[in-house]
Amino acid sequence: MGWAIALHGGAGDIPLSFPVEGRAPREAALRHCLELGVAALKANRPPLDVVELVVRELENSPCFNAGKGSVLTTNGTVEMEACIMDGNTKKCGAVSGLSTVVNAISLARLVMERTPHIYLAFDGAEAFAREQGVETAHSSHFITPENVERLKNAKEAKRVQIDFTEPIKGTIPSSIGDSQIGTVGCVAVDGHGILASATSTGGLVNKMAGRIGDTPIIGAGTYANSYCAVSATGKGESIIQATVARDVAALMEYKGLSLKEAAAYVIERTPKGNVGLVAVSANGEVTMPFNTTGMFRACATEDGYSEIGIWPSGINGDLEYPNK
Amino acid sequence: MGGWAIAVHGGAGVDPKLPEERQEEARRVLRRCLGVGAAGLRAGLPAVDVVEMVVRELETDPVFNSGRGSALTQEGTVEMEASIMDGRGRRCGSVSGLTTVKNPVSLARLVMDRSPHSYLAFHGAEDFAREQGVEVVDNSYFITDENVRMLKLAKEANSIVYDYRVPVPSADTCSASAGLVGATTDGGLQMNGLPISIYAPETVGCVAVDSCGWCAAATSTGGLMNKMSGRIGDSPLIGSGTYACGACAVSCTGEGEAIIRSTLARDVAALMEYKGLGLQEAVDYALKERLDEGKAGLIAVSRNGEVAYGFNTVGMFRGCATEDGFMDVAIW
Predict the structure, then answer these.
(1) Do B238 and A243 touch (CB under 8 A)?
(2) What are the pLDDT digits (tens) for A37-83?
(3) Any bridge partners for residue B195, and if so which?
(4) For A155, B49, B51, B131, which has the most beta carbons within 10 A of its beta carbon?
(5) Is the distance from CB of B292 to CB of B262 less than 8 angstroms?
(6) Residue B119 contacts A, CB cutoff 8 Å
(7) Can you tell me the distance from the alpha carbon of A289 to that of A275, in angstroms, rounded to the nearest whole number?
(8) Are B181 and B162 within 8 A, CB to CB?
(9) Which residues pair with B227 in a beta bridge?
């Protein structure tokens, strides 16, 4: 037993040749968010507060696909979504289609705590945000030059694909670089075994307006109960049909698998290149498996272990701190 | 064992004082829709086509609250949602926030078959509908006088509810009005925080297994009476209101928030897959152990041609038919 925390900044086709100028700020952001989360757990903040504050920090960072730095829809706009779940009560909150709310995860929490509903979206969610007086900003706050470039590349790649091949239903051609990266998330457990999960995203680059991914769908991208807390990332459509987050917990409960076994089982059965997740168990264990090229991730446990990484352990300079 | 099977529902949580002619009307519609589905299965149609066809029938008929006859938002408008899942390949499609699409389940099917995504909502979904050329109508088409009247009562009930802050001994819900009483003569029976006489079960669904053993599920709804605009419930959420895989197909109805928290549809399948329970056992276990104080019902079929129902509400409009000639339509 003991507290544990894990967070991610998205899984995807992160090439090993990813330039250092790109890596350094992301690693720094992961380290900073991990430290914030660890400090909060050490200060006995409830896990629900911890995951929210860590995800807020990840949203505010322009390096990841959530909040500031969200990828763009096919119309060049942002449509953000988020979800939070309290493993103790199984209460949850989700939002989709946000375009002005600075911290989607906090609005999701307000949906959970201040409405009779679980999930609000688009105009209704924006109206609720104004009612609640949460911080909002003009779209220029969220849109970064990198994402304008990514959208351009994605449209180019799609155009190229359509010119030369039969359009393949269901596949969005991966464009150059890390455009497949989606989502930020955090899971945490305290010393009493109370669990919480939070996930936030700008979605899929060049997505159709109105497209909802796995992040706000309880049981797909986000889940927490008394066994574990899970936050998933990757190709939303695959995560939805595989009910990734729920399945990790169900395997523990119904099949008696351990956290690591359950998470590995789910990842293995999802098409390669499509998914990664972070999870913690009531016993303070952590796992961060993925079947993509890489996943921006970090974790720490009360016994002093911590890890920050991008690619599978052992490849290309993952930073490990066995004794903090 | 084996052979095709189909089940339908028209919502869980029925007013025990529902007039007999309304009950008979509901049974008639359920019987008719079952007949349509059974004919399709007998003719060898795949399960996913059958569930879409049957839910279209249920949406079009105003007796049940989906499509025409949907419950109204607090603004008096209709916002519909639906999902469909084909156990073969676990492909899925969902839509939310529809205001003009005549058959939401068919748009969900098009999202599944003709878009690169699984879920489209609000303006984006409406744009997609126009691109695809599906039938659209004015929002007023979906609004019935009865539901306008019900909305007024619901608003009054919610204001009465806040006046009498007496804890209700019956079920808590995820609702903000939990713990507050509805001042009616329902004996405290509530669904989603509304007295049962005002609450209208607002979801329809169909599950089927075809003669090849493939299962599919579809669910469609107008949502919750007096809901906030933009509120999404369980019906379009894969794993909550709808689920289908190689083993079974499930469609749920009832308190949306409770169904979401318990990922009810996925749990029935997970209990079969991971715990080795049979279909009815899994249905019973999920309803008993997973809902906490939530009120819901569900229908399910298995690849082996079995059908199961379960509900912890007062009543669920339902029906089923199997290849060996069995047919049943019931409310209580």
Answers:
(1) yes
(2) 999 999 999 999 999 999 999 999 999 999 999 999 999 999 999 99
(3) B190
(4) B51
(5) yes
(6) yes
(7) 9
(8) no
(9) B73
Q: Which amino acid is at A302?
A: E
For A70-107, write each residue's pLDDT tens digit.
999 999 999 999 999 999 999 999 999 999 999 999 99
- Is the CB of residue B193 less than 8 Å away from at least one CB of chain A? yes
| Inter-chain residue contact A116 with B257, CB threshold 8 Å | yes
Of B231, B243, B263, the CB nearest to A124: B231
* CA distance linking residue A66 with residue B329, whole number of Å: 48
Q: For B146-205, how does the pLDDT look when each residue is reduced to its tens digit (9 = 90+)?
A: 889 888 988 887 754 332 222 333 333 333 333 333 333 445 567 666 666 655 666 999
Question: B175 at the A interface (CB within 8 A)?
Answer: yes
Rg over CA atoms, chain A: 18
| Closest Cα in chain B to A241 | B90
Instruction: Enter the tokens of residue B217.
Output: 């599920």
Residue A183 annotated as catalytic: yes
Please check whether residue A162 touches B, CB under 8 A: no
CB B101 within 8 A of CB B120: no
Q: Where are the alpha helices (DSSP H) in chain A?
A: 20-42, 47-60, 104-114, 122-132, 145-164, 236-241, 244-255, 259-268
For residue A155, CA distances in Å to A11, A176, A223 come to: 21, 11, 33
Q: What is the ipTM of this complex?
A: 0.91
> Structure tokens of B85?
């899942």
A104 CB neighbours in chain B (<8 A) are none
**Alpha-carbon torsion (B143, B146, B152, B153), positive or negative:** negative
- Residue positions counted in chain B: 332
> Of the listed A73, A183, A222, A293, which one is catalytic?
A183
What phi and psi, each to the nearest 5 degrees, are found at residue B307? -125, 145
A116/B contact by beta carbon, under 8 A: yes
